[in-house]
Design goal:
Layout (H helix, E strand, L loop, with lengths): L9 E4 L2 E4 L3 H26 L6 H17 L12 H8 L13 H29 L6 H5 L1 H30 L7 H14 L7 H21 L2 H18 L20
Antiparallel strand pairs: 1-2
Helix pairs in contact: 1-7, 2-6, 3-4, 4-9, 6-7, 6-8, 6-9, 7-8, 8-9
Length: 264
């Protein structure tokens, strides 16, 4: 009698599912290679390549991701914008609307208020960091270039944040959830991928901030399954970065103005 659990058995290692000779295993391996190539190898190629406008990479990539998600029968298209059902569930207020059809106060208490509290804490930490390390950078953009600062506040969420969240939260967390079975492993992998996407700025501040920021944005997306809500949180932090004086760490032309200790 043949022992069970030979070539077709499934095992789990580090939260990633593997099967020896099954179509599921082959698909998992293909997805793993795809993830490594797109999210971990490609950013380093962009670092070595001649400088190109980021929108030439970001926007086509977001458009392709949108088409892939729309064609995926297992994907709920409501997640591309405002997933009302999941947001209500996350807020603990299923079927509770006011007479105008807006979300009840539970939405404010459960999602928006904690988001703003986290933002205030991070803002204080970043302010103290700049005050001690780079005091001349504090509020440099709004002080020195108020027109440019206003343009960034208005255009950054639409032209940069939503495409990023579409790629790194909506697409990434849906497409690779089957190879990263444990939520913690998936969040960590997503944070590493998001940080790797920022190596193009060639400084440790951008990489570290985006690594930790990714946990916040991914957790919000997991709770609400809404690209819009995750984009709102990402926009708040991005606007904070450019306002408080850290914007030059996220600017391709600013590498030479950064302290040598913070560059790579």
């Amino acid at each position: 009698m043949k022992p069970e659990g030979n070539s077709r058995s499934q095992v789990e290692q580090g939260g990633v599912a593997f099967g020896a000779d099954s179509p599921v295993a082959a698909k998992a391996r293909a997805r793993m290679l795809e993830m490594i190539a797109i999210f971990f190898a490609l950013p380093w190629l962009l670092v070595l390549a001649p400088a190109i406008p980021l929108w030439l990479v970001l926007w086509p990539a977001a458009g392709l991701v949108w088409l892939v998600l729309r064609a995926d029968a297992s994907f709920d298209r409501a997640q591309l914008w405002f997933n009302q059902a999941m947001i209500l569930q996350a807020a603990g207020c299923i079927d509770r609307f006011d007479h105008c059809g807006r979300l009840s106060r539970s939405w404010w208490r459960s999602i928006l208020l904690p988001m703003l509290v986290r933002l205030a804490v991070v803002a204080l930490i970043l302010y103290l960091f700049l005050l001690l390390v780079l005091p001349d950078s504090l509020f440099a953009l709004p002080r020195q270039h108020p027109g440019l600062w206003l343009a960034v506040m208005l255009l950054y969420p639409l032209l940069s944040v939503y495409p990023q969240e579409l790629i790194f939260r909506t697409f990434f967390l849906h497409r690779y959830q089957d190879i990263c079975k444990r939520p913690g492993i998936l969040l960590l992998t997503n944070a590493l991928a998001f940080a790797m996407a920022h190596v193009i700025y060639r400084n440790w501040v951008a990489v570290l901030l985006t690594f930790f920021g990714s946990f916040l944005f991914a957790r919000t997306y997991q709770r609400t399954r809404s690209t819009l809500v995750a984009s709102v949180e990402h926009s708040l932090y991005g606007c904070l970065i450019f306002t408080i004086g850290l914007g030059r760490f996220f600017y391709l032309g600013g590498i030479n103005s950064l302290p040598a200790l913070l560059r790579f």
